[in-house]
Amino acid sequence: MNEEQVKGKFNEGAGKARQAYGDATDDPEQVREGEDQEMKGKGQGMWGDVKEKAGDLKDKVT
Question: Which of 27, 38, 53, 54 could form a disulfide bond with 22, CB atoms 3.0-4.6 angstroms apart?
């Protein structure tokens, strides 16, 4: 697992927690910000996957 994947997992979890807090406090802004943070985390995770695959491919070629 690379740094981007770790950051992605953190942001996904933090976003879900923020959404739960927003739901519990009836704060739609927190829910929306949590959804944004979760999506950011998913994007980071995907970018980390791409970087990892590229590194694996590079290792196979050399």
Answer: 27
